[in-house]
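Q: Here's a chain of 338 amino acids. Please give me its 3D structure as tokens.
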Amino acid sequence: MTNKTVSRRNFVKAGAAGASLVGMTQLFGISTAFAQDGDDDTQTIINLAATAELFATTHYLAGINGAEAMGLDEIQVNYLKTGFLAEQDHLELLMSLGATPLFTEFYVPDGLFADKDLFSQITEVAETTFVSAYLAATRIFTAAGAVPFAVTTAQIAAVEAEHRALVRQIGGRIANNIPYAQYQFDNVSDAVPVLMPFLDGSGEGFVGPVQPPTAEDIAAIRAEADALGYVNTVPFAAMPAPEASAPAGDCSVTPAGNQTVNLRSGPGTSFASVGTLRAGETAAVDGQAPGSTGAMWYHLTSGSWVRSDVVTATGSCASLPMMEVAMPDPAATEESSG
């Protein structure tokens, strides 16, 4: 595969054939990520998303550095710089939630950053894949009742779709050519075969590895943010800003229906049971966190946790701060009773 013969169809075909299911599972070091019948768990989702975002920052930085060779004008370079900043912001959010990128160096088709048409074409494939993966994450978080996470992944998918449109424009193709963003995957992990050549160099004609941006690279482009008109203060739903968070006592919960629900020492049934909340009783809430399956759990001011879908919440619960909790391994399946 040379820089003159890569096509979108050939690239996707090569990517899908890049690794077997067993090979991918072993390569990523996650025994259940690609073999489970159900939905990807939260840790798998954010780890894979962080890997994609780190690849994206690597890719955009190399595109910026290759702008002269590709003949990009100033506006097109600014597209790439603001795209880089958005991907870096996504990565930093995911890392703050406990994500770990599964690869830290990447591979690319030979000549990618010296050929504008090839760069546009390959970037479109990557961004389309990212959009589809984040839409899959949105489906999973919605099904699990993790609304803040679902909204945030939808917010990211919308920005990735903007990037897709801009790189199509760079390649001289009409930017807004579809009525709906493509929903190609049911699970985030289903996107891995398409991206595998970037991760392990398995695609014909791929070269590397290409190292990700350094702290100095990131700082240099961040220093241009104001001049570029890039705004990084737009709030995201998963982690409200501290000033927007509800103070303790503004949110309270009571068991849904006429039932008694379990309280846990952490956000998941793999944590020890520490008591119950009986029908008719009310408890104050001061935080929230997703469990291992993505379901949201409320942190009570007493120090215990209860799953959000077994209680009725009242007050300013939507703006509760997201809390970081170390999850035990292996995580147990969350029961409907919490």
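Q: Can you summarize the key feature?
A: Residues 8-228 form one domain.
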